[in-house]
Amino acid sequence: MTLHRRHAVAALSLGVPFLASGAARAADKVTILLDWFLNPDHAALVIAKTRGLFAKRGLEVDLIVPADPSAPPKLVAAGKGDYAVSYQPQLQLFVAGSDRASDALPLVRVGALVDRPLNSLVALAGGPIRTLPDLKGRKVGYSVAGFEDAILAAMLETAGLTLKDVTLVNVNFALTTALKSKQVDAVIGAFRNFELNDLEIEKLKGVAFMVETYGVPMYDELILVARASSLDVARTRNILAAIREATEWLRANPDAAWAAFAAYGGKEVANELNRRAWKDTLPLLAADPAALDRARYETFAKFLKGRGLIKRDVPVDSYVREIR
Question: d(Cα 200, Cα 212) in Å, to the nearest integer?
């Protein structure tokens, strides 16, 4: 469940109705494009839909699972969807473009679903990695070069190490498999609410090193983005209010919320991993999805630029909005 795993390239389904450019829709119809397969990270969206919290605000919301997890922000930027679930780092890379303003996507952050990092470095408990300095001379698994390299480098620096002190191994998204088989000694890009539970299902225990504890600035993991030029502020305010109400309810009623979530997602969602991840995910959901910490975005933009991932300074207020 890493940032980059959710960006894996796949064929885009031709059956998704919102892809028809310019298709007319009623003013109260809204599409929210998810970032990945339906999972507990989307709990507040599902509960807002199943409990009628969107509907009571005059909204008919469709939650769309993408065939290509990298596509939703691009589709929203092109006007082919209303909102997309994305990530703060991804947004900041998109709005900066490669190295020219013309490459930038016209996106704006309007809210958050998970307002803290989920990313972590995970090793097997009882193994050779007990502290970060133990990584010296060891193998670290990753999924896609770039963001994960930058995160790992920052973490290693807190232990007096660099990327040259470890051997990076591309494990092709199979993080827990690589750990179990001893192909690697640790993995970067593990989501703390999923990979640890995945290991426990296999009767193994993992230890997680949280990125924000080891040199990486705080950032929002899951956010909602919209097309800047066509942002409907009133509609967005209603969506965020529904998500806030859903979050309050599901935290107060975790078992009933899980039952509703599992019924909505069906047997592919109601599995043991998601059931275990559910209890770890609920405390991580943003209590106020409309809240915005501009300083967090400014600091993380400097981090990305310092690591060479973005080359331009982009004013934060051009791509974030606080909607109350």
Answer: 24
